[in-house]
Design a protein that fits this description.
There is one protein chain. It is built from 13 helices and 9 strands. It starts with 5 loop residues before the first strand and ends with a helix. It is globular and about 60 Å long. The chain is an alpha/beta fold. A 5-stranded mixed beta sheet has the order 3-2-1-4-8, sandwiched between helices. It has a 4-stranded mixed beta sheet with strand order 5-9-6-7, with helices on both faces.
């Protein structure tokens, strides 16, 4: 049997609540030349049974693999190793695709061999599917077409993981997802940056996916994510572009810390972080605007969000 054009990479760990909806959204594409590689990372719930049943019902499209729990990066890399497609598309087991996602992405990739990463707009939903927010860039990415590396590293723009499609051979050549980010996050941003150094990054201005927000432990996750972001900034100094942007990247890191603190109870940390951002990159107005907001009395902030 001929290999498919696209391999959908779906890692799962104890995702019984959502995996069926994710699989249905992938199988419901208006594009048919794909496989779904479900990589079970040692789940202890009913995820394995659900995935195996879908593999039985849809043998042409769904393949199931299992490994001992090794974490998200290792699971994605194992799925990539099992993939057969020319392109990889990421879909986590709790997210959803819109029916036109793959057809639009593949048309864009096939029309320009210099393009190494396609991404699009995403919407945030809660565990019950209710819409929380829309992250629809429209034409915002157009101004960063000349320098997507800068846009991603300095956090001017975001690449929504569930909307990404990219060449498998290049991802394998680059080593896939870096295991140093395991448990910290930023492994996806790291790969987007390395891809951006090899070709064009193209944003498609349509709603491609729903990203599901759920779970607890926000403050603990925040500290881990900040560690991952620090690692990313240091990791990018392996490349001349990352070294050139290093002070600005540290400033963007401080901005992200300030913006994720609780304004009242962590006011001192917020002010220090904005001060660091301004010192490192005074031309970035985000730091000045953030500091001005932080210095406003709380009643004024409430009246003018």
């Amino acid at each position: 049997m001929e290999p498919p054009l696209v391999s959908v990479i779906m890692p799962v760990y104890n995702g019984e609540r959502f995996i069926e909806a994710a699989l249905r959204s992938a199988l419901g594409q208006d594009f048919s030349d794909f496989e779904i590689v479900v990589l079970d990372d040692g789940s202890t719930d009913a995820s394995a049974g659900i995935a195996r049943e879908y593999a039985r019902m849809h043998p042409r499209h769904v393949r199931y693999f299992r490994q001992e729990n090794g974490g998200f990066c290792a699971a994605r890399n194992a799925a990539i190793a099992a993939a057969r497609g020319r392109y990889l598309a990421l879909l986590d087991c709790d997210d959803l695709w819109m029916p036109q996602h793959l057809s639009h992405a593949i048309e864009a990739l096939e029309s320009d061999p210099q393009t190494v990463l396609i991404h699009a707009n995403v919407r945030f939903i809660d565990e019950n599917g209710a819409v929380l927010a829309e992250f629809l860039h429209k034409e915002r990415w157009a101004q960063w077409g000349h320098d997507p590396f800068k846009a991603i590293l300095l956090r001017y723009e975001h690449v929504a993981c569930a909307t990404t499609v990219f060449p498998r051979a290049l991802a394998v050549e680059l080593g896939g997802f870096d295991l140093r980010y395991s448990g910290l996050g930023c492994e996806d941003r790291d790969l987007w940056l390395r891809l951006a150094l090899r070709g064009k990054v193209r944003h498609l201005p349509y709603h491609a996916a729903d990203y599901r927000v759920h779970g607890g432990g926000v403050s603990r996750r925040r500290e881990r994510m900040l560690c991952g972001r620090r690692l990313l900034v240091e990791r990018m100094t392996d490349f001349s572009e990352g070294r050139r942007l290093y002070p600005a990247a540290l400033a963007a890191l401080a901005l992200s810390e300030a913006e994720e603190c609780v304004p009242g109870s962590e006011r001192g940390r917020v002010l220090r972080a904005y001060g660091t951002a301004i010192r490192l990159n005074p031309r970035d107005l985000r730091g000045w605007r953030g500091l001005a907001r932080a210095l406003l009395p709380s009643r004024v902030r409430a009246a003018h969000p």
